[in-house]
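Exercise 7b. Backbone tokens:
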């Protein structure tokens, strides 16, 4: 039951991230992706720093900036590039490859065994996302494809390294360090590369508050908490909840059509996520060793 509760809490993060597309397109001005990413990360990170009153020690500054770059600055920038240059379905399908990348990165960096069931679940999940989102007229742009693959690799690396490097602080503090670092990295690029944003309306502010407070501060705290507690292959599979939520919100809120093929794709994604949790579940011996190790660290 504790593992199930951890999975459900962690799954809330990508499920809420699925709302980012509809919030961005319906409430925010277009043409300022890096600026919006900076406004999403930096205020949320600073707010969490004030709330937690926990600054990273000198030994963690480099790691915080590297993780902030991988999980936020680089990932969000490449995500926007892929979204602008590819149909949404193609971009999301490339992003779903993150689960597969995490499995192999975790083997190299954490020594986690590669389980056939996890690989099969990840591959099936990518197929489900493709059925859910890709249409027959999907265009393939080389730059967009490279950005989509780079974004998936960046988030995968950030997830695995966040598991490898666990500071002796709360998930909120760990999130605050990374968000602030990512926002500081994004800020100069936004000022140099993009035009000034128009005056913000109340709708714009509401969208930024949702993306920053809920879609970044709260959800990433849940995500990093899950990264510390759940096996890398299992937690990465939960990221596939995001496109499912995005499609369902488009259907419910915007009245977008949902075909039977898309329904099948959603069912395949949800099934693969469930199978991925089972396939990545540690054995009794491994779980005992993990609990003993955790108890030793606490002591």
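Sequence design result:
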């Amino acid at each position: 039951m504790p593992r199930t509760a951890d999975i459900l809490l962690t799954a809330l993060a990508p499920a809420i991230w699925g709302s980012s597309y509809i919030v961005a397109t319906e409430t925010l001005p277009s043409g300022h992706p890096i600026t919006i990413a900076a406004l999403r990360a930096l205020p949320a990170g600073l707010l969490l720093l004030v709330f937690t009153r926990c600054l990273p020690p000198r030994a963690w500054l480099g790691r915080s900036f590297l993780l902030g770059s991988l999980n936020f600055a680089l990932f969000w920038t490449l995500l926007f590039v892929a979204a602008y240059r590819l149909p949404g379905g193609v971009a999301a399908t490339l992003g779903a490859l993150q689960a597969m990348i995490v499995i192999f990165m975790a083997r190299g960096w954490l020594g986690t065994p590669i389980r056939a069931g996890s690989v099969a679940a990840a591959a099936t999940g990518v197929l489900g996302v493709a059925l859910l989102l890709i249409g027959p007229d999907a265009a393939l742009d080389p730059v967009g494809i490279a950005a989509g693959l780079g974004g998936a690799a960046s988030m995968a690396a950030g997830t695995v390294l966040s598991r490898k490097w666990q500071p002796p602080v709360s998930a909120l503090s760990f999130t605050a360090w990374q968000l602030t670092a990512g926002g500081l990295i994004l800020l100069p690029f936004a000022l140099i590369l993009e035009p000034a944003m128009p005056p913000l309306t109340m709708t714009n502010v509401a969208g930024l508050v949702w993306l920053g407070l809920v879609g970044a501060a709260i959800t990433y705290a849940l995500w990093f908490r899950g990264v510390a507690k759940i096996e890398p292959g299992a937690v990465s599979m939960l990221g596939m909840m995001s496109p499912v939520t995005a499609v369902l919100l488009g259907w419910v809120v915007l009245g977008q059509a949902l075909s039977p093929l898309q329904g099948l794709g959603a069912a395949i994604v949800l099934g693969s996520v469930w199978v991925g949790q089972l396939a990545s579940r540690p054995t009794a011996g491994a779980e005992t060793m993990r609990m003993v190790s955790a108890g030793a660290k606490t002591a």
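Instructor comment: Residues 2-298 form one domain. The first helix runs from residue 2 to 17.
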